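Each lists sequence, tokenised fold; shown next:
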Amino acid sequence: MRKVLKFALFAAFAGAAAGAAQAARKDETTEQMTQAALKGAGEAAAVGAIIGFFLDRRDRRRRAKARAKMSAASLTASGLLEAARAARPAFDAAMEAVSHATELAIPKVEHAVDVARPRVEHALEAASLAVTQAAEATFPKVEHAVDVARPHVEHAAKAARERAGDLADAARERVRAA
């Protein structure tokens, strides 16, 4: 049960961060960022709870196996059926815990989005300015490279045309001879 809660909360925070980051990259509004963060938190919390549930089950199995080795007691078919019946309330409780964890995480995720938004916007503005400056600094160099390459390209094109003409003439002569 402890792993269900731990994994659900951890996954909810990670999902919220991922959803908010993706929405921020798309320049979405704060409401859309919040919705993306909440959606990511909910989906990730559900996945985390399921993973935690199965890890709890695995630990229980290991402990049960160790007990079985020590006591050499075997479970009967009715004992297995009883264990399956006993697992159902634990599963229901785990799902309730996931729901509760999601409700607790929503305000924290909204706060994280509100805190992160100005920083993301500032980083975007700084990156935009740097990219613009880099493009402006690179443009004269590209123009110069084009000017330097133009005579070479023209010469290569002229040579290719001449060679193609020579090959076409040779092919015509072969066709006539055949």
The mean pLDDT is 81. Residues 2-134 form one domain. DSSP finds three helices and no strands in the chain.
